[in-house]
């Protein structure tokens, strides 16, 4: 869930292992479906660079799908992570939940003992 100001600038991030992205070769397709998107929003990532963001999304539920595709635009059949779909919820009016910080006493008690 992305609430309040967090909903204005949502990062789309992924990790890639054992492959290299390149123009006209392996690439990652990003597809987004949801409120305010007429058909679907798509982009092809063929090199690592600046991150991708979803800006100014409307309130509602979105589906974000990332797929690792080969030069033939077919899914690379190597593991369950090569096609991943996530659902995100945007609520601009809601207040984000504060992040909990560990207390100093909890941090010191979690430290390993030295011998």
SSE layout and pairing:
Elements: E1 2-3, E2 9-12, E3 27-33, E4 41-45, E5 52-55, E6 60-69, E7 83-91, H1 104-109
Parallel strand pairs: 1-7
Antiparallel strand pairs: 2-5, 3-4, 3-6, 6-7
Question: Could you describe the 3D structure shown?
Answer:
The chain has one helix at residues 104-109; strands at residues 2-3, 9-12, 27-33, 41-45, 52-55, 60-69, 83-91. The chain contains 1 helix and 7 strands. It is mainly beta. A hairpin with a 7-residue loop joins strand 3 (27-33) and strand 4 (41-45). The radius of gyration is 19 Å and the shape is globular. A 5-stranded mixed beta sheet has the order 1-7-6-3-4, with no helix packed on it. Helix content is 5%, strand content 36%. 7% of the residues are buried.
Q: Can you give me a brief rundown of this structure?
A:
This protein is mainly beta and 115 residues long.
List its salient traits.
115 residues; mainly beta; five-stranded mixed beta sheet; two-stranded antiparallel sheet; 1 helix; disordered C terminus
* DSSP E strands, number: 7
Morphology call: globular
Oligomer: single chain
- Runs with pLDDT <50, length 5+? 111-115
Terminal CA distance: 44 Å
Strand arrangement across the biggest beta sheet = 1-7-6-3-4
Percent of residues in helices: under 10%
Number of helices: 1
Strand content: 35-45%
Q: Based on helices, strands and strand pairing, what is the structural class?
A: mainly beta
């Amino acid at each position: 869930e992305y609430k309040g100001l967090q909903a204005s600038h949502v990062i789309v991030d992924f990790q890639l292992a054992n492959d290299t992205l390149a123009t006209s070769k392996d690439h990652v397709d990003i597809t987004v479906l949801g409120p305010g998107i007429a058909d679907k929003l798509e982009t092809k990532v063929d090199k690592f660079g600046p991150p991708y963001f979803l800006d100014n999304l409307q309130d509602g539920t979105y589906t974000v799908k990332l797929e690792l595709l080969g030069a033939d635009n077919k899914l690379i059949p190597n593991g369950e992570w090569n096609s991943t779909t996530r659902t995100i919820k945007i609520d601009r009016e809601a207040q984000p939940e504060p992040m909990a910080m560990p207390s100093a006493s909890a941090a010191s008690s979690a430290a390993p003992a030295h011998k």
